[in-house]
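# step 3/5: fold
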Amino acid sequence: MIKTTLAALLPFLMLGSSVPDDAAAKIDTTLASAETPIETPAEEPVEIETVEYTGYTCEGCTTQEQMALAAFHERGITDKNAIAALMGNIRQESKFIPDICEGGARVAYEHCHSGGYGLIQWTTTGRYDGLGRHAKNMGLNPSTTEAQLSYLFTEYEWKQVESAMKTPGKSIEWYMQHAYKWLGWGIHGARTDYAYNYARMLYKAS
């Protein structure tokens, strides 16, 4: 633009003539526009959404225990005593060993022919066979923690007590009463003691 304007004025400059007012104004306008910095729009700040994890961490827990803890949290169970009661029951039933057959033998799902099997010692034919069908449908191994935790939440017995386990602010004993409706154990054993131990081990993740 500046080159074009100067070219138009060159005849006046070579002849020594004065530059007409309108041409001089054109030079001023052109130069002013050339010197004016180009304004770039300010970048709007990007707001990064942060999600606070409000679950519990279990110090010293095994991989299987950590998997159960995460699974219960994902189901919406957030009370420490409720989680502790659930985990105390699983520890009493199987010590969190997924391929354990009642009596202590560690065998694949299809080789446990009597008694309970797995994390919560599925005993009745209906519940035991249900584990196998669920695992097959999900493409999982029924002898694993993953398959058994997945199956656990589909059972009628669990669905009967899930709302109670999601109720916050109750004692371990209160949750334990509802856990009995879930498992229907014959021997109470040390499950309440285990629950209190877990309650001491659980702490809020920062």
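# step 4/5: annotate
Residues 1-17, 23-27, 29-35, 45-53 have pLDDT under 50 and may be disordered.
# step 5/5: archive (pending)
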